[in-house]
Predict the structure.
Amino acid sequence: MRTGLNKDKYDSVNLYFQDESRFGLMTKQKRVLVSKGIKPVGRYQHSYKWLWLWGCFSPITGDSFYWETPWVSNTIFESFLCDFSKQNPRELKIIIIDNAGFHACQSIIVPDNIKLIRIPPYSPELNPAEKIWQWMKNKVAMKLFKDITILQDKITEMVDQLEPELVKSITGYELYTKTFFEYF
């Protein structure tokens, strides 16, 4: 190990990708297969009720951490990091984040066992956490949910399906895993 990890403070190092995504009652549409000349028909619900799902995902171990909130803000981001730091507190967590406005790190307190690294602006393809949201949203696409609690139940069901091996298979970009193992 070439990192000079402070063994008095940390037992391990892990890489995480953090992101948040909005899930709502408005029907998410997607492409469907139909016969040539047939117009696809699907039910649609137009509603402005939603919730935000926050997550950190490790392509190295498959570990993940989730939070659900009614909105996003700097304060919520700070609280999310604080709670996440308590999961395996002797692990140094390197977290890759995007440039969302509420990630304004100058005004928040970041726990000691968390180091934040930003990806370049306007490059969501560099954040594999986006693929987790895509996986989840594909499972709720073209479905109607009567109210937000039914959607929450579906989200809980999907989160429970995200076992470590599945998280690693979705987020394990070779660029990141290879680089991480070279240094740690």
In short: Residues 25 and 80 are 24 Å apart (CA to CA). The chain has one domain: 12-28+43-183. The chain has a mean pLDDT of 86. The chain has five helices and five strands.
